[in-house]
Each structure stands twice: as structure tokens, then as C-alpha cells.
Design goal:
This protein is of the alpha/beta class. It is built from 14 helices and twelve strands.
């Protein structure tokens, strides 16, 4: 299968008085045309930074894309000029940011912000751009779109603001859409509507989607393949069915068992002990070993590489194939 985007050994660091924070430390993944790739992990594991690096939206300094390649349609985005990169952002690759209220400019109307995105990348008049913006508002299901064009972000609900962001992102028909937790600030009903909207538009427009989230429920609904990140690294990648039915990394298994389940009222909700380590001070060996119930001396001293497992998944773990999810997170463990 051809690859629309291929990320190779991407490293993004941030320099501070306390040292160098390795927010993204040598990750690799790819996405095919029309595919949905989910990137999951706890807050602080490098999901958003990796995608901001793809678009070269990292502030330099203190940030630095220290190494790697981002191949998009045959060109390395890390090597093109800033002018060429500006022509790609919004037109070929678009991004929906996590919080629409802070992503939209409060002093410009919603319509003007979409019109600006259209006129920046397409040779059209302002009137033509306004008509195009109106079409996009209708496409994403904004009620009374003519009036909403002239309203400001603070006049809209969270769900409508997110639809404006989607309209802006799709206004130039990008081939790749990056969604950074697009439903986090929304209630579950609006969340379901936004996800359904994204999947419908993907089919209509034929675009690829990178879905960044910490919600495995969203991944189950939307993704074809999944990348699991932890402490700036990819620890597992596989198709969505394998991730849910045959996870190969203890971290992936822990994330699944932290999902609330119907009919489990006697059991306490499982939580992975500890927190994601600071990128300024990662532990030696496997980055997950301080929180892993299978940890041994080898895990503490040597960092595993991402390798092909017997299941077909790519996994970075010394214990791959040596445990079953039910044994690792049984009811006794959940109840402690």
C-alpha cells in the first residue's frame, strides 16, 4: 500500500534552564491514503508534539526538531523552505486543535477566519471565498449558516465552535487531516456527532486522518491502525482489532483495563500506578519499567527496540508474548 505520510526517527527536544526535554525521541509511523491512524497515550507522552513537528509548528527556540524525516507526497517537510511549508499547511495538511475557543481568534468573525484560510491558498475573490465558507458551514452541519458566518466565537457553543474549526480545516480539501483530541471539551452527545461528522466527511472527501486522543473509545470507533505512545516513544503499533483483542505491551493492556465497564460495580476502576515520567529525567532502560508489573533487571538496564512480534504487531517490550492480559490485570490486581 502506498504511503501518504511517513515519519522516520523523529526527535523533538525543548531546551530549558533545567536541561533538555526529549518530548519526542525517535518515533516512526506512516499513514496510507484514506486511512485513519489513531495515536493514543496519557497526557505528556508526546502525541501532540509529534504532530506539531510534522507541520513545523514547534516554537524555535526553545523547541528544536533535532532529527528525523517527515516524508509527505515524496518530499521531506523538514527540509523544505518556510514559504513552501506555509503553502502546505492548511492546503495539503490541516489540523483541528484541541480547544476551539483558544484556537479561534476572538476579534474576528467565524466566517472571516474561514474566508482567510480559503483566500490564502486559493486564487478566489472575497465574495467567492465567502460563498465557499458558507458551503463549508452547511457541509459540517452548522444551523443557520448565513447568520453564523458573521458571529464571533464567543457567541457559539463549544460544539459549533468545533464545527467551525472543522470547516476551516476542510475548506481547501486537504489530503491529510490531523485531529488533536477534537472532542475533549465536548459532552458525549456532541462528541458522537463530531466523530460521525468526521467519518462522513472522510468518506466524501477521501482524506486521511490522524486522530490524537487518550480515549480508547474514540479509537475503537474511528481508527484503522493505532500507534501507542509512552514517554516520547512508540511502544506498540498494530491494526485496531489487534490492539483491542491481543495487546502485546503491558502499557497498552493497562490503558484498556482503565476503561470503565458496565456490570463491574464491585471492582474499583483500575489505574496504572505512577505517572508519565518527566521528559527532563527519563528512567534508564524501558521508560515504562517503574510502572510495569512485569519489570525485572533487564527492563531497568536495557531499552527495548520496536520489533515485529509473532502477533504481527510492532512492540517495544522485553516481555512480549510472555503474558496474557487476564493474568496481568486480574480481578485481584484491579481491586487492590
Amino acid at each position: 500500500m502506498s504511503k501518504l505520510l511517513e515519519v522516520k526517527n523523529l526527535c523533538t527536544y525543548f531546551h530549558s534552564d533545567d536541561g533538555v526535554a526529549k518530548a519526542v525521541d525517535g518515533i516512526s509511523f506512516d499513514i496510507a491514503p484514506g486511512e485513519t491512524l489513531g495515536i493514543v497515550g496519557e497526557s505528556g507522552c508526546g502525541k501532540t508534539v509529534s504532530c506539531l513537528s510534522i507541520l513545523r509548528l514547534i516554537q524555535i527556540p526553545p523547541g528544536e526538531i533535532a532529527a528525523g524525516e517527515v516524508i509527505f507526497n515524496g518530499a521531506d517537510l523538514l527540509s523544505v523552505t518556510e514559504e513552501e511549508m506555509r503553502s502546505i499547511r492548511g492546503k495539503d495538511i490541516a489540523m483541528i486543535f484541541q480547544e476551539p475557543m483558544t484556537s479561534l481568534n476572538p476579534v474576528f468573525s467565524c466566517g472571516n477566519q474561514v474566508i482567510e484560510a480559503i483566500t490564502l491558498h486559493q486564487k478566489v475573490t472575497t465574495d467567492e471565498a465567502r460563498s465557499r465558507a458558507l458551503e463549508m458551514f452547511k457541509l459540517v452541519g452548522i444551523p443557520d449558516p448565513e447568520r453564523r458566518l458573521d458571529e464571533y466565537p464567543h457567541q457559539l457553543s463549544g460544539g459549533l465552535r468545533q464545527r467551525v474549526m472543522i470547516a476551516m480545516a476542510l475548506s481547501c480539501h486537504p489530503s491529510l487531516l490531523i485531529c488533536d483530541e477534537p472532542t475533549t471539551a465536548l459532552d458525549v452527545t456532541i462528541q458522537a456527532q463530531i466523530l460521525a461528522l468526521l467519518l462522513r466527511l472522510q468518506k466524501e472527501l477521501g482524506m486521511s486522518i490522524i486522530m490524537i486522543t487518550h480515549d480508547l473509545g474514540v479509537i475503537a470507533e474511528t481508527a484503522d491502525r493505532v500507534v501507542v505512545m509512552y514517554a516520547g516513544k512508540v511502544v506498540e503499533t498494530a491494526d485496531v482489532s489487534s490492539i483491542f483483542h491481543h495487546p502485546q505491551h503491558p502499557y497498552t493492556t493497562g490503558l484498556q483495563h482503565a476503561i470503565p465497564r458496565m456490570g463491574k460495580r464491585k471492582d474499583r476502576l483500575y489505574q496504572i500506578e505512577g505517572t508519565v515520567p518527566s521528559p527532563l529525567d527519563f528512567p534508564s532502560g524501558c521508560k515504562f519499567h517503574p510502572r510495569c508489573p512485569l519489570m525485572d533487571d533487564n527492563c531497568m538496564q536495557n531499552e527495548p527496540e520496536l520489533k515485529l512480534a509473532a502477533s504481527g504487531s510492532m512492540v517495544a517490550c522485553w516481555k512480549t508474548g510472555q503474558f496474557e492480559a487476564e493474568e496481568l490485570f486480574n480481578s485481584e490486581v484491579i481491586e487492590k
